[in-house]
Design brief:
By secondary structure, this protein is mostly helical. It has a domain at 12-112: CRISPR-associated endonuclease Cas1, C-terminal domain (Four Helix Bundle (Hemerythrin (Met), subunit A)), CATH 1.20.120. 47% of the residues lie in helices and 8% in strands. The chain has helices at 12-34, 53-59, 63-76, 97-112, 129-141; strands spanning 85-87, 93-95, 114-116, 123-125. A two-stranded antiparallel sheet has the order 1-2. It has a two-stranded antiparallel sheet with strand order 3-4.
Length: 154
């Protein structure tokens, strides 16, 4: 890996990261819609038609906690090999079906892990964090919370 590449990812690392980012972005879209917020109207990313800008804003809190750690663990533990990613004509890198299954299984297991939520103080599964953060953002926007408590897990 020498530079960031996406749409399509042009190296194995970015192919894995892009796949996991897409999944957690979809999770965040669902969480935002569940609390009545429009995932397309955000604060940090530029609004574009069809782009879930607010979801992308909140996904920033989850990149290292979920995606980056997961992908690096899969690589370091040799659960994902370069042979499980195919280079296509034109430079795109795609995962094989077996690699996709491995990543999805690991992501599902990661979502079941518990962490202590910094604001609530209790243990919650990582899979519930998008819903909690969406609810906290909705409460802030509606004036119930003075500040939005960004997710910082130590």
């Amino acid at each position: 890996m020498t530079t960031r590449s996406r749409r399509p990812p042009r190296d194995p690392l970015h192919a894995l990261l892009s796949f996991v980012y897409a999944i957690i972005t979809n999770d965040m879209v669902s969480a935002l819609e569940g609390v009545g917020l429009d995932p397309a109207v955000g604060f940090l990313h530029v609004d574009r038609p069809g782009r879930p800008t607010l979801a992308l804003d909140l996904v920033e809190e989850f990149r290292t906690l979920v995606a980056d750690r997961l992908v690096l663990s899969l690589i370091n533990l040799k659960q994902v090999q370069v042979t499980g990613l195919d280079s296509q004509p034109g430079g795109a890198v795609l995962m094989t079906e077996a690699t996709r299954r491995t990543v999805l299984t690991a992501l599902t297991q990661r979502k079941r892990e518990e962490v202590t939520h910094p604001l609530l103080g209790g243990k919650v599964t990582i899979g519930l964090l998008p819903h909690l953060q969406a609810r906290l953002l909705a409460r802030h926007i509606r004036g119930d919370l003075e500040d939005y408590p960004a997710l910082v897990i130590k």
